[in-house]
Structure formats: C-alpha cells, structure tokens
C-alpha cells in the first residue's frame, strides 16, 4: 500500500532523493572513512528515525563495531553469525522483514523488529557492512537496498 511508504508526508523514495545530494556534499573531498561513516549514520538516523543505523568494519576476520547512531550494540560479530555476519559471508545485501524468523539473528536491542544489512565491497572483498534496524516489521525493501548500495559507493570515493 502506498500509504505504508509515507513517512512524514514524503515517500521513502523522496526521502532518499533529498538525502543523496546532501550526503554527496557532506562526504565530498573527505577521505577519512570513519568520519564519512559517522556522518552517513547520523544523516540516515535523522532522515528515517530508524532504531539503529551504523557500520561494522572487517578487522582480523571479525566484524568490529564502527560509527553508529542508536542504542549501544555488540562490538564483535564473527563471519556467518547473525544478519551482519551472513551478509558478509554471502557478500550480498540481506533484507530481514521479521528478525524473529531469521535463524541466528543477534538481538542487540529487543526493540528491533526488522533489519537490512548492506555489505561494503572493495576490489571484490567485503570490508564492512552497513546495518539498519527498525522497530517496525517489514520496514526495509528493495528501495532501501538500491539507495543504500548507491550511498556506500559514494563512501569509497573520498
Ligand atoms: N542484528 C545484527 C547485530 C547488530 S545489531 O542489530 C546493531 C545481526 O543479527 O547481525
């Protein structure tokens, strides 16, 4: 239903279309990836009001917590573990409409109901993931996937 996609009078697509040029301006010319991840997490949190949005970065064969917005989260995730570890292992975006239905989901917050994890891929290797969690079921879809994947491309252009 179209109504379901309206957030504060704008469609999800409109929100991303507004955010994209702002984000490109914010990240342009800055080569420090942690700084860029921090601003991207803040901009996404402000625009969409998700429960949690942030990054995990691959370090020594583990995902380690990076810049994020939201409640405190687990700091390390192994390959294949949870939604983040599965997206890393498969090197593909995972959309989870109901986290309770995802075997091995890692519940950093009991309020999280749905989730999207998008891998950051450089030279064919996953170097980190972007994770977003919502208190609503089925909050994420292919629109989020498309725009978030595009955003992560901007992240690496420093
Ligand atoms: N739910 C994630 C863990 C990270 S937190 O949600 C911030 C997972 O299952 O990988």
Can you summarize this structure?
This protein has 158 residues and is α+β, with helices and mostly antiparallel strands. It is built from four helices and eight strands. The protein has a single domain (2-155), classed as Beta-Lactamase, CATH 3.30.450.40.
Query: Main beta sheet, described?
Result: 6 strands, antiparallel
Structural class: alpha+beta
N-to-C series of helices and strands: EEHHEEEHEEEH
Count of individual helical segments: 4
Helix content: 25-40%
Mean pLDDT: 93
Q: What is the number of beta strands?
A: 8
Beta content = 25-35%
- Order the strands across the largest sheet as they lie in space: 5-4-3-8-7-6
Overview of this protein structure:
- The protein has 158 residues and is α+β, with helices and mostly antiparallel strands.
- The protein has one domain (2-155): Beta-Lactamase.
- 35% of the residues lie in helices and 28% in strands.
- It has four helices and eight strands, in the order E-E-H-H-E-E-E-H-E-E-E-H.
- It has helices spanning 12-27, 33-48, 82-90, 142-155, and strands at residues 6-7, 10-11, 52-59, 62-69, 76-78, 94-96, 114-122, 125-134.
- The strands form two sheets. It has a six-stranded antiparallel β-sheet with strand order 5-4-3-8-7-6, with helices on both faces. Strands 1-2 form a two-stranded antiparallel sheet.
- Strand 1 and strand 2 (10-11) form a beta hairpin.
- The longest helix has 16 residues, at 12-27.
- The radius of gyration is 15 Å and the shape is globular.
- The chain binds methionine sulfoxide.
- Methionine sulfoxide binds next to helix 3 and strand 8.
